[in-house]
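Q: For a teaching handout, I want to show students what a protein-ligand complex looks like in token form. Below are the inputs, and the small molecule is magnesium ion. Please produce the holo structure.
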Amino acid sequence: MADYKLLIDGELVEAASGETFASTNPGTGEKIADVAKAGREDTIRALEAARRAFDEGPWSRTTPKERAEKLRAIAQLITDNQAELSEIEALDGGGTIRKAMLADVPGAASTFEWYARMAEENDEQVELEGSPFPISQNYKRYEPYGVCTGIIPWNFPFIMASWKVAPALAAGNTSVLKPASYTSLSALKLGQLIAEADILPPGVLNVLAGPGGTVGEEMAANPLVDKTAFTGSTEVGRRIMQLASGTVKAVTLELGGKSANIVLDDADLDIAAAAVLFGTFFHNGQVCESGTRALVQRKVYDEFVSLLVDRAGKIVIGSQLDMDTDLGPLVHRSQVETVERYVALGREEVGEPICGGSKPDALADGLDRDAFYRPTIFADVDNKAKIAQEEIFGPVLCVIPFDTDDEAVAIANDSIYGLGGGVQSGNLDRAQAVASRMRTGTVWINDYHMLAPPRPFGGYKQSGVGRELGIEGYRAYQQVKHVYVNPETAGRDNHFHFAVLSANI
Ligand code: NAP
Ligand code: MG
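A: Here is the structure, written as tokens, with magnesium ion included.
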């Protein structure tokens, strides 16, 4: 029996195969729960349920106001269960309990609230100009796509679940959500809470845990689906696009990054150091918009680099459940192995890192050293190096010197990615001029990682397609229909098209 069940058509169920898989605490290797493991059959059942709920069910006929009320009820449910959800999130993925309590769980609640507002505040029907050709009544209607699938990664499972489900439901779509296999628990728990509170009609929200290669592929390829939204690696993002192309589905993709955080010579170096360290090492660098390339102007380079090393040494590594911990385990031992491979490559390409470069020496009893990694900084990195070009998704920072603002912009843009970025400067005009030239979806000035529901988020270049959050993230779940009404039902002679086509029909 699974501790965490799938949500399909309003019911909490085992997988059709009866199979389960274990979810573990990466910090200790201990099993936390058995999870029902969906396969193709469960996925098709969920997609059919979502299709029925859209085509025949009440959801697509609800008013925006009715949907907003349901979303607010979900936000309240999340807030009421904040402590339990935070613990599940931290235990399962290795992120700190501080992050879960202060960012993940309240962030998800505020995402549901934001999209409730979006549904209420944005008219579904908008009048258009009535002329020319010929004078007529015209309007556009924003309508839901239908069945939307959401496939999410392991780094921010709860927030990512809210980013996929809330806008889909707000706009009147039905949703099928798949969390990553390393971190399925919080999304399944959300499904369970919503089902038990009986907030949504059956089939409107379905949650499936199971392998990306079967469940995820079906969710991107199946003709019952109208739109697929994916967050994860660029490699899988390409695959999603290919699968979705079979029935020309809409896709939004939130993919990898290798973002630049530019430190100009007039920056307050204390603030800049905080922005660079937080920008890189928050959640062990397992964040798509992490500023893993710090570009530092040569005039302040030496002073700034020693500040970084000094402060990085103070970061506390330990159990993710301890409120004093800054960095818990990475999501899985395999992610630590990836980091080790890149650090070995960095030693060949650049030389010895100026801090970190290994697992921590000593940890409290019960913690598995192989799941942790020290914050690591490589200095004097050439932007062409692989460690400066490829997404590591671990606590590794490359520091790159530059001389002029033009050079900083050129280095920042010399990347296949364009997701986030920072400019640290005491001169706002100068900072904004640099920010405007960075080919990236977000730039933080004198800060980093500050995302919130009203602020659109997404990537340029190979970091993705489309935007989440903001009004853009709401419209991304709607199609637009133009309706033309000929006001002159009599008097055919006046009709423009009769004049253009033929006088005889
Ligand atoms: P991933 O392989 O792209 O997985 C993301 C999601 O896609 C998971 O739910 C995964 O399911 C699913 N998936 C995997 N293969 C699929 C397929 N063929 N069709 C449909 N869905 C599929 O990412 P990851 O393994 O978690 O991490 C790998 C790298 O991706 C990281 O090192 C990092 O570079 C990047 N990443 C980026 C973000 C971001 O926010 N942009 C987040 C996480 C990771 P399973 O979990 O069952 O495989
Ligand atoms: Mg886990």
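A: Two things your students might notice: The domain at 260-445 is CATH 3.40.309.10 (Aldehyde Dehydrogenase; Chain A, domain 2). The longest helix spans residues 97-121.
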